[in-house]
């Protein structure tokens, strides 16, 4: 029954439409078959963040080619940063998200900063919001990246620096 419907539709189409439609249907079938055979499994698992990166770059290009408003930079910046975070998760392991989660806030800050920087009419509060969210993101990112072993090393360095300052107080170096 399905083949009869396709045959009837083909009778109604012109030769150019048949060629184009045939190529699209053939390509779709080949892609589906290769996907089911596992050819695309690695690419799909490793490169899916491109689904965020490509639209983010396209939004930037759309603005910079003077075809779209400056507001496109906000989601464009967010999508680019998020795709980078997801690439890190793909290649570094998803456990890295427990350390890099504050970078999601950084995506918002980047989008707002790009908007403020490229906008011809500065809106009050946008730069301040970008700076607050960006600084908060960087502080939280630094906080999460300090694992316990790094905290112990930092504590030892601070103790040594404190002892050196206490014992060298009042002594100046001459000859500088």
What portion of residues is helical? Answer: over 70%
| Helix and strand composition category | mainly alpha
Apparent shape:
elongated
Tell me the radius of gyration: 28 Å
The amount of beta strand, in percent, is under 5%
- Biggest beta sheet attributes: none
Low-confidence stretches: none
User: What's the total number of strands?
Assistant: 0
SSE topology string: HHHHHHHHH
Measured between the Cα atoms of the first and last residue, the distance is: 96 Å
Please tell me the total number of domains. 2
Question: What is the typical, i.e. mean, pLDDT?
Answer: 82
How large is the count of helical segments?
A: 9
Would you give an account of this structure?
The chain is mainly α and 176 residues long. The protein has two domains: 2-39; 47-167, no CATH class. Helix content is 76%, strand content 0%. The protein contains nine helices and no strands. The chain has helices at residues 2-12, 15-36, 41-46, 50-64, 73-92, 97-100, 103-118, 126-145, 148-167. The longest helix is centred in the first third of the chain and has 22 residues, at 15-36. The radius of gyration is 28 Å and the shape is elongated.
